[in-house]
Structures are given as C-alpha cells and as structure tokens.
Design a protein that fits this description.
The complex is a heterodimer.
Chain A lengths: L8 H8 L9 H5 L6 H9 L3 H11 L3 H7 L21 H11 L16 E5 L3 H12 L3 E5 L7 H6 L7 H12 L4 E3 L10 H7 L2 E4 L19 E3 H10 L11 E5 L3 H12 L4 E5 L11 H9 L3 E3 L2 E8 L3 E14 L2 E7 L5 E4 L2 E4 L8 H5 L5 E3 L10 H24 L3
Parallel strand pairs in A: 1-2, 1-4, 2-3, 4-14, 5-13, 6-7, 6-13, 7-8
Antiparallel strand pairs in A: 9-10, 10-11, 10-12
Chain B lengths: L5 E3 L2 E3 L3 E3 L8 H10 L3 E7 L13 E6 L2 E8 L8 H14 L4 E6 L4 H14 L3 E5 L13 H4 L2 H14 L5 E4 L7 H11 L3 E4 L3 E3 L21 E4 L4 H14 L4 E4 L5 H9 L4 E4 L1 H6 L3 H16 L27 E5 L9 H9 L4 E3 L5 E3 L9 H5 L5 E5 L6
Parallel strand pairs in B: 3-4, 3-14, 4-7, 7-8, 8-9, 9-10, 10-13, 13-14
Antiparallel strand pairs in B: 1-2, 5-6, 6-12, 11-12, 15-18, 16-17
Helix pairs in contact in B: 2-3, 3-5, 5-6, 6-7, 8-10
Classes of the chains: A alpha/beta, B alpha/beta.
Chain lengths: 414, 401
C-alpha cells in the first residue's frame, strides 16, 4: 500500500535517484499493468514530471487511483533489486508524486479502425472502463452500462474515501468517459435490459460487473438485527447510503481475515465504534490480508482476536453478544492449516454489531453470460485478484481480445 | 597518535592538511577555530596592497548536482579578499602568537613589482611562515592583467616569481599555478628557474557551472547576467591529480596539492602522486573544519594498515607506476568476471556492454550476467557501472591466435 505521506519535491528527486534503472526490471514484470517503472522514475529524477505522468497513464488509466491503493509491497516493490542493497525504491510514493505534479497530459491520436463495431461494457469499474477506453480509442462505438448510480465500481464504494479521494477517482473516470459513445447508470443487465437483447444489439460484450453480494455467516442467530456483511457495510459507509446501522459507540466484531475485513474494521473505527475487533479463525501467518493493511489497521486502533471462530450470535431481536470459541490449528498437506474448535472453551463476548467479511458471492449475471459467443470477461467478474491494477490489466487484455476477435471474424467474412 | 608530520619547503607541518586560500581563511576567528579543530596550516585568503580595488559581486557561487545530490563541483566568481595587507599582517601576527606550532601562510596577488615586493616584506615582518602567490585565479583578476594571465605565460611566471623571491629574506615562496595552460610543467619549470621554493597545483578550473534553462542566464546569476568562473570540488580531482603528477615527475620542485581533496582517500592519492602538502577548500566549506579530524584519522589508519611509519614514505610512491601510453603492456589480456553471490541481477552491466562496449554480456533466465570471454575485450566499462561492485577484471592466459 502506498504510504499516505506525500513526498516533497526534494524527497522525490532524491528517492528517484535511488532507482538503478534495471534491465528487464522486476518492478515492471511484477506490475500487472506493465508500467515502465524505471522510465517514469528516471523522468522524475530529471525533473520531467509531465513525461513521468505520461509513462504512467500510457499503461494505466487509473494511475492516480493505483498510487493511492496499490499494494506496492506485494507487487512492484517486492522484488526491487535495490532492496538487496539497502531498501526497495518507494515506487508507490513516486507514482503519487508524478500523477500530482505532471499536470495535463495528452496522448497522440491512435489510428482508428476502418470497421467500427458496437461494444457493450457491463460495469463502470476499472476493468470495464479501461477496456472501454481502449476500444473507443481504436474507433469502436462503446456503450457502458452500470447498475449503480455512478461510475467507479469497487474502488468507489469499497474503498474508504480517506484512502482514495473521490476526486482522484472521478477525475480519471471523467477522462475515460469523454471517449465513450454513452454511459448509462442505474441500469441492470438482466433486469432493465435483457441479456438476449444486449447480445443481439452488440458485436461484443465485455462483462466487468464485479462480484455479487457478500457471503453470509451460516451460524445460528446470523439473521438478528445488527449483523451486516462487509460489502453492504462498506458501500453504505463509503457512499453515505442509508439502511445500515451505525457502528458509533458500539463494540464491533469483524469476522474474517482478508483485506475487506481490514477495510471494514478501519471503517467501523472511523465511524466511531468503541472497539473494532477482527475475529479470525487462524493465526497471523495464514491471514490473507496484506501485511501493510494489517499494520495500518493496527495503527488505527483495530484489535485482533486470532484463532477464534464464531459459534452463535446471541440476542432476542437485536444481537447482544456473540458466542466464540478458540481454535487449534491442524496441519494439512499442501494447504493452510485447518482451524478446529476447542470444545468446552466457548465463551460469550459482548457485541453491538457484527460485520461478516467472508468473501463475495459470484455475480448472478455471470451464469447467463458464461460460454456465450462474443462475450468477454475482465476484473473481479473474471475471477481476478481484486486489485485495481489487476482489473486495469484485465480490462486492457480483454479489449485486445475483443479486437482480435473482430479481426478473426473479418477473416472469416462475418 | 601516529606522527602525520610532513616537511614542505623546509617547514615541518604537524600534519599535511592545510586550509587553502579561500573564504574559510578570510577571518581571523575562522582560522583560529580551524587550528583548534586540528588543521596543520592555513593560507589566509589572497590579499593585496591597500590601493587595490576589490569589487565583489553577489551571489558568487553555484553548485553542480549529480544524481540529485549536492556539490559534485562548486563554481565561484569570488575575487581576492577585500581585506588588504594592513588587516592581514595583523592577523598573521595574532595567529602566529596564538598558534605557534601551526603554519600560518598568506596568499598574495599584485600588479606591479612594487606591490608584490611590498606584500612580501610586510608579511615577513608580521611573522608569516610561507607566502603563496596567486598566478592562477581564472576569473575577474585576469581582466586586470592579474591571476591566471601570469600563470598562462611562462615568461611572466618566471619574471614575477623572481620579483617575489628577491623580496623574501626568510620565508619560502610558493607559486599557485593554473591548469588553464597547455603544459603545466612549463609553468612549474619557470617557477623553478625563478628560484622560488615550491608550486601549488592547481587553482580552479575555468568553467560555466550551468545555465538556467528557463531564463537563459548561466550560473551563478548576478541579476540577469553571469560570467565565466572557477570550478573546484570533487569533480576537478582528476585534473588536479594529473597536474600534480606531471609536475612531480618532471620538475624538481615541491608541490602542495589543491583540487577536489574531499576524503582521506583523496589525500592519500595526492601524496602517492608526489604532493607533499594537501590543501582543502570546497570540502571544508561544505562539511566544516571538523573534517580534518576524519582526514587525519583516515590517513593514520591507512598508514597502520599499509605499514607506513611516516607520511614521507607515501609521497611519490605511485610515480613509477605512471608511464607513457606507449610503454604500457600490450599483452595484458583481461576479461570481466562476475561475483555471482554479490550480483543483485539488475542487468546494468548488460546494457553497458551492449550499448557501450562489445556485446560480451548476456543475461539468462536467472538474470545473472554471463561473460562471453571471446567477445570481452577487457575494456572494464562494466566494472565502472555495477552498483554493487561485483564485476572485476581478471588476467587470463593470452588468447591463442
């Protein structure tokens, strides 16, 4: 995760000078979007901030968004050769610096196709918008359909505003929107527009609708008022939607150990929870959340209850407490160890709110579109790894596949 | 404590580190602090007779950055001190009284013979230990027929040095030379002929530090104009080393070195090439007078490591190893070798060899550079760019034809 502290000009110039400008740089190989990282850093070093920004946007239309949310320690910075000498170059911070200081950038016009086609893109998140932009720039007519009232997808409703400013995201999306034929909000495919109609009207469909609702906790009492899934909670928290109880003044327990659990735990704390406690079945070692995220949660006062599993949610109509049980870890061949409840050790813990962060269900739309001719997938809908930069990479790749498909279809005389 | 003393022009310096004639020596209080910090000597900033008009401009300095780090080189358009001989002679008296074991030297510049001789006489009377004459300032002064105007003309060097030497009854005379001359040994030879006692090599290298690309004014900017100045600092070290070696190997005259001495390693290098005395300016301005403690300790540790019992033993030790190009071995077959354990797989050497050399390095799947011994001519460029110093040249058996 890029650190929140912004670099001063002096710090950026010095940090940029730490880059070795490697041949076949591991940072670039590890960047899903394939950004030419040594090149943008070299440009910062020489004071050509506009050039640096252009290098970033050439490969990633969400460069500013990614500068704020990319797990750089897990991606570009992980194998930085400089790390073997002293420490990895702070690529995330330099990226944030370049996008802020680079001013307005322009890209040369691309050669337009002589056979413009009509493409529908489902979902206005980073994957869909990146794919849409590439296709539109190549001269195709692109219509985007978004179920929510505005664009942005998961970064918009899933990432707290204090981590990613909405202005940053909106600025990047606005640039992309300019290239599109149309973008329709509050439009659900399968409800407002039938799948078959869409397939009939368009030459290709890019499905980038993300995942569906959050998985429910399958224990007794899970339906009591005061239990909410993290996806719903975060969406309400991040977009000021109503309909979700406030964590203010409550003891909030978050069930799960992934990045969404960390986000929800931090958001609960931010919203005034008395205590925000992550309950995870396994140990630190197995926790799927990125280390930087865990650290950030700890810095914000989130507590952790490890090797603990929920047994039952207690209460009359509203939840009042949760029954938990400690676990022991049983090694499993080639897999994460299995948490086994220690019988007889159950205990009750007071709770004013329980947030379940157990992953998301598949988007129901996928069932209707999978395996169909001229349908392509990108982003979380394609089973991506849930980073913005991965979504960008997949959106770009899907656009390439769609154009190759058109070429091939043309070859067949279709 | 290791004995770091070294004789130069008949004077025994407690250590060879001397503050050059510069802003660092333009106040009595500063020189006193420098002596307290441990400098072996100081050359008070160049002075002149009272009638000499010294008209300074500001700003007078600009620095060269490298890789966004400061002061790879410093340019100045400073002139000689605006303190004339009347002030400097008093300083000499006071400093000599307070620090009798240190070498208090003065630097002078004049136009007419009478000026030079008067300066020498008054400084001798004040008790100065050594006098350095600037025949070398490359900016400002030459426009008045002074500074490097003299140093660039061997006849003027000899004539002027003779005036100075004639006037000196007691103290050694050192002539500070400019590198802005086709053959610096000719100037050194002229000094030798004049009877003066030693030379200082080198004064600053004439240069333009840079240009403001937005208002087109070169640096340093005096309002909207600039002028050509004198460059000092680490970047001029190779020029200074060369000049020192050229003089010490062909002219029988003691040399005090100046030009980029920043660390004890630089100091050792100048000694090895025959300098008997080491002047520091830019590094002392940058890091402060305390620097001398590190210079002395580094030199002492080096001597212990190398089993030198006196600094004298270091002086000139590299001169036999500096020969004409034509004399160098033609059958020295070397190839680049990679220490794979230290290699961080950055691939810089590959790029360097591919675009700057002989396409002798390939990078495989494991990213470790492989040297093709047939293609490697042994130029050593790769060893200069490796960030972790894991490439070295190794002698190999001669190539079979």
């Amino acid at each position: 995760m890029a650190e929140e502290k912004k670099l001063s000009k002096e710090a950026a110039l010095l940090e940029a000078a730490n880059c070795l400008k490697c041949y076949k740089p591991p940072c670039q190989e590890d960047c899903p979007a394939g950004i030419d990282i040594p090149r943008f850093i070299y440009k910062i070093k020489t004071g050509d901030f506009k050039g640096a920004k252009r290098v970033l946007y050439e490969k990633n239309l969400f460069a500013a968004t990614c500068a704020a949310v990319c797990p750089v320690e897990e991606l570009c910075q992980e194998n930085c050769n400089k790390g073997q000498v002293s420490r990895a170059v702070s690529i995330g911070q330099l990226q944030a610096y370049a996008v802020e200081m680079g001013g307005e950038i322009e890209f040369p016009e691309e050669e337009k196709t002589k056979n413009p086609r009509k493409i529908a893109v489902i979902g206005a998140g980073p994957a869909g918008m990146t794919g849409a932009y590439r296709l539109a720039r190549a001269g195709h007519q692109v219509d985007v359909f978004e179920a929510q009232k505005g664009p942005g997808g998961t970064p918009f409703w899933g990432i707290p505003p204090w981590r990613l400013s909405r202005e940053t995201l909106e600025r990047e999306i606005k640039e992309i929107e300019k290239q599109l034929h149309s973008i329709k909000y509050n439009t659900r495919i399968g409800e407002d527009i039938q799948v078959e109609d869409l397939l009939n009207e368009y030459d290709a469909v890019l499905v980038s609708c993300g995942l569906g609702e959050g998985s429910a906790l399958r224990i007794k009492g899970a339906d009591l008022e005061g239990t909410v899934d993290a996806v719903t909670f975060l969406r309400a928290h991040n977009t000021d939607e109503n309909g979700v109880p406030s964590p203010e003044g409550k003891i909030v327990l978050i069930i799960g150990g992934g990045n969404t659990a960390m986000d929800a735990a931090m958001a609960a704390k931010e919203a005034g929870a008395e205590r925000s406690i992550v309950v995870y079945r396994r140990s630190w070692e197995e926790m799927p959340a990125w280390k930087a995220e865990i650290q950030k949660a700890q810095e914000r006062g989130v507590e952790f209850m490890l090797q603990t599993a929920p047994v039952e949610i207690l209460g009359e109509k509203k939840l009042e407490a949760i029954k938990l049980v400690p676990t022991r870890l049983v090694p499993e061949e080639g897999r994460r160890p299995r948490p086994v409840p220690i019988e007889g050790k159950e205990f009750d813990f007071p709770a004013g709110m329980v947030i379940t962060a157990l992953g998301q269900l598949e988007n129901p739309l996928l069932e209707k579109l999978e395996g169909r001719e001229k349908v392509f997938f990108a982003g979380d809908a394609a089973g991506g790894d849930a980073t913005v930069v991965q979504a960008v990479a997949e959106g770009k790749e899907a656009a390439g596949k769609i154009m190759a498909y058109f070429q091939e279809a043309k070859g067949r005389g279709v | 404590m290791t004995d770091l003393s070294l004789e130069f022009c008949g004077i025994k310096y407690p250590n060879p580190f001397v503050l050059a004639a510069a802003p660092t020596t333009d106040k009595e209080e500063m020189v006193a602090r420098a002596f307290e910090a441990g400098w072996g000597g100081a050359i008070l900033k160049t002075t002149s007779v009272e009638t000499e008009d010294v008209s300074l401009v500001y700003p007078m300095m600009a620095g060269l950055d490298y890789d966004n780090k400061r002061l790879a080189a410093l340019e100045n358009i400073d002139l000689i001190s605006h303190h004339h001989i009347d002030v400097v002679e008093k300083r000499v008296q006071n400093l000599k009284k307070e620090f009798p074991d240190r070498v208090v030297a003065a630097s002078i510049m004049g136009q007419a013979k009478e000026h030079w001789q008067e300066l020498v006489q008054r400084l001798e009377a004040a008790g100065v230990d050594l006098i350095e004459c600037s025949f070398s300032c490359p900016h400002g002064m030459p426009e008045k027929g002074m500074g490097s105007t003299i140093g660039q003309n061997p006849e003027l060097v000899e004539k002027t040095a003779r005036w100075v030497k004639e006037a000196a009854k007691r103290v050694p005379i050192v002539i500070k030379l400019t590198p802005q001359i086709a053959d610096i040994t000719v100037a050194a030879e002229a000094v030798k002929k004049s009877g003066a006692d030693g030379v200082c090599a080198i004064n600053t290298v004439k240069g333009i530090l840079g240009v403001d690309i937005y208002d087109f004014v070169p640096y340093p900017k005096v309002r909207d104009k600039s002028t050509i100045g004198g460059v000092s600092g680490l970047a001029i070290k190779p020029v200074a080393l060369r000049c020192v070696a050229e003089i010490t190997r062909s002219v029988d005259i003691p040399v005090t070195a100046s030009g980029g001495i920043t660390t004890w390693r630089d100091a050792v290098e100048f000694l090895l090439l025959g300098a008997r005395n080491l002047q520091v300016c830019t590094a002392a301005m940058q890091y402060g007078f305390d620097l001398v403690g590190d210079l002395k300790e580094g030199l002492a540790n080096y001597m212990a490591e190398m089993n030198f019992s006196s600094v004298e033993q270091i002086v000139g030790k590299s001169l036999p190893k500096l020969v004409d190009h034509g004399t160098l071995s033609r059958d020295n077959r070397v190839v680049s070798r990679v220490d794979e354990d230290r290699c961080i797989k950055c691939g810089r050497c590959y790029v360097a060899c591919n675009d700057g050399g002989h396409q002798a390095i390939t990078i495989g799947e494991d990213r470790i550079p492989q040297i093709d011994e047939e293609e490697c001519v042994g130029c050593a460029f790769c060893t200069t760019i490796c960030p972790v110093y894991c490439l070295e040249m190794e002698r190999v058996e001669e190539k079979k034809e």
